[in-house]
Amino acid sequence: MPPLFRRAALAILLAAFGAAAFAQAQKAPAYEPTSGQEGKDVVWIPTPQVVVDKMLDMARVGPADFVMDLGSGDGRTVITAAKRGARALGVEYNPDMVEYAKRLAHKEGVTNRASFVKQDLFQTDLSQATVITMFLLPDINLKLRPKILELKPGTRIVSNSFTMGDWKEDEKAEMSRDAGCNVSWCTALLWIVPAKVAGVYKVPQGDLTLKQQFQELSGTLHTGGQTYALQGKVRGEEIQFTAGGRRYNGRWNGKTVELKS
Ligand SMILES: C[S@@+](CC[C@H](N)C(=O)[O-])C[C@H]1O[C@@H](n2cnc3c(N)ncnc32)[C@H](O)[C@@H]1O
Asked: What's the 42 CA to ligand 1 centre distance in angstroms?
């Protein structure tokens, strides 16, 4: 075939192929997820919107936050956080769900603050998050727990329904039917990553020995010639305990305990 004809034939072929691909794309129905569909480590079931709102309320999400939703599904938590002014990132293994969530974020006008990445949540760097949200499974939460406990003290973790083993939540809210939760999965749980404060300290009041199990504190305060057993909590860097019938407040400054009265 002379070169001119060959080029013309190629052009016709490419045009026909392009038209067919375009028609195919036009015909393909947009991806629609189905509640209960398979996921890598857990199926997709969306958190009821009232529970999303409650979870973000409990974590006090605002413009200063960077929220990460682990297993972000249709992106509703990320989008809601972005509407509150936070930067938010959804980590989702299913690429169709990632694209679906991006489309919803676009529709809601929050693409400047809401983004999504196709990634395994177990391979994800969580260190920049100020808030982590999740609706996974108890054993997945437990697997993530060591990594979560190494995050910056004060990082808030909120989970729909599933617990964190023997690390008891700091707050729990059950959403009733009256509150608008008329399906299952209506419990929001909050944990605040505690600073690691166990140790022996000289404080203005005397000698303080702190033992720590997650956010729960026990130990002794030796003051005024007496030794008292103490019970208390550490919430992020804030410390509170009672000893000898008195209440004490303090904070962890990164090196030591600063005890007020
Ligand atoms: C129960 S849904 C929760 C969706 C969303 N966070 C919500 O609360 O509406 C769990 C999501 O995790 C995703 N997923 C499962 N295993 C994952 C993994 N290893 N890494 C990232 N995402 C995963 C599933 O595809 C699904 O979308």
From this structure: 6
Q: Residue 223, Cα to own-chain centre: how many angstroms?
A: 41
Handedness of CA 179, 184, 120, 115 (dihedral sign): negative
Cα of 162 from ligand 1 centre, angstroms? 13
Q: Is the CB of 80 under 6 A from ligand 1?
A: no
Amino acid code (one letter) for 224: G
Q: Does the CB atom of residue 99 touch ligand 1 within 6 A?
A: no
Ligand 1, atom 9: closest residue by C-alpha? 46
Of 247, 248, 245, the C-alpha closest to 258 is: 248
> Tokens standing for 215?
């956010």
Is 183 touching ligand 1 by the criterion CB < 6 Å? no
DSSP 3-state assignment of 215?
coil
Beta bridge partners, 219, equal 210, 230
pLDDT values of the chain reduced to their tens digit, one per residue, 261 residues: 566 556 655 555 455 555 555 555 566 788 999 999 999 999 999 999 999 999 999 999 999 999 999 999 999 999 999 999 999 999 999 999 999 999 999 999 999 999 999 999 999 999 999 999 999 999 999 999 999 999 999 999 999 999 999 999 999 999 999 998 988 899 999 999 999 999 999 999 999 999 999 999 999 999 999 999 999 999 999 999 999 999 999 999 999 999 997
Q: Which of 34, 40, 181 to mutate to test the pocket of ligand 1 (most atoms within 8 A of CB)?
A: 40
Kindly tell me the burial class for residue 192, based on how many C-beta atoms sit within 10 Å of its own C-beta (0-12, 13-18, 19 or more). buried
188 C-beta closer than 6 A to ligand 1: no
Q: What are phi and psi of 257, to 5 degrees?
A: -95, 125
